[in-house]
Amino acid sequence: MTSNDRFGRRIVLGALLAAPLASPALAQGQYPMRPVRLVVPFAPAGTTDIAARILAERLHARLGQPFTIDNRPGAGGNIGSDVVAKADPDGYTLLMQTISSGAINYGLYAGRMPYKPEDLAAVGLMLRVPNAIFVTNALPVNTLAELVAYAKANPGKLNIGSSGAGTSLHMTGELLKLEAGIEMTHIPFRGAGPMLAEVIAGRVEVGVDNLPSVIGHLRDGRLRALAVTTATRTPALPEVPTTAEAGFPGVEATAWFGVQAPAGTPRPILDRLGAAIDAIVKEPATAARIAELGGMPPALTPDGGTTPAAFASFIRSEITKWGEIVNRAGVKLE
Prior knowledge:
The chain is α/β, with parallel strands linked by helices. It has 2 domains: about 30-130 and about 255-330, D-Maltodextrin-Binding Protein, domain 2 (3-Layer(aba) Sandwich); about 130-230, 3-Layer(aba) Sandwich (D-Maltodextrin-Binding Protein, domain 2). About 45% of the residues lie in helices and about 20% in strands. It contains 11 helices and 9 strands. Strands 1, 2, 3, 4, 5, 6, 7, 8 and 9 form a 9-stranded mixed β-sheet that branches. The radius of gyration is 23 Å and the shape is globular.
């Protein structure tokens, strides 16, 4: 064997030994190589679904593979979230997480949650939105103060709808009842669409919803907005006062929507997805689309964006905050 032959064998052997070490990184660097499933734990037509479809469209454009929506509603978002928590951590099953199943439910279903916070890895926050408190047009009230006065004069006669038990919308209604000292019967629905239809028809008198999924009905006059639940008014409905302006500063709740993945998903995949979401929320066209729906940017980083680490820290703080509110309201779900 010549020296050239021995040299060639050493090169081939070195390449073979190095290949197993390089392949995982190589595979992750090529992610995604096939369509990705984005699980939405609520029914179609609600804000979670709207946000997911906007994000899926932009992720497809940026990463080159389809991001397909899989609606898995039920149990305030727990059913769909559990699907992702138990999925293979390969980056091909993601969750459009919400304030409900990502924070509030840990207090509401204490000891009975099908997954734990550590079963899901943070990827990025997409947007925050106000909740809107509104009424059917047949109800003779035009302000939040008038609603409270009507509820006190007609105890037990008002129903308040939300898109599901344990959602931030349900808890916003509970906060209103606590702060105002009124009673209304909570009617949970399996999504925003069915709830809005019942309030428009007048079969449920009061509703709470995320602004993006109700804003069209408010603008068209099919429903009457009384307040938004953020600290400042939303440019999307500048004429609608905040709950603080209406005399109830304790009724403040900002819903949020972001992406999580199964725990154990490789860090390069989380980082690539996180960077893509950060770029998407900063796109002028996407930002304008979100603002038109009444949404606000994530603003987790100094430049107004998001990262997996910042989103993880944010989720931890939200779990603590809403756990305290759930205890105060005394609401527990089976």
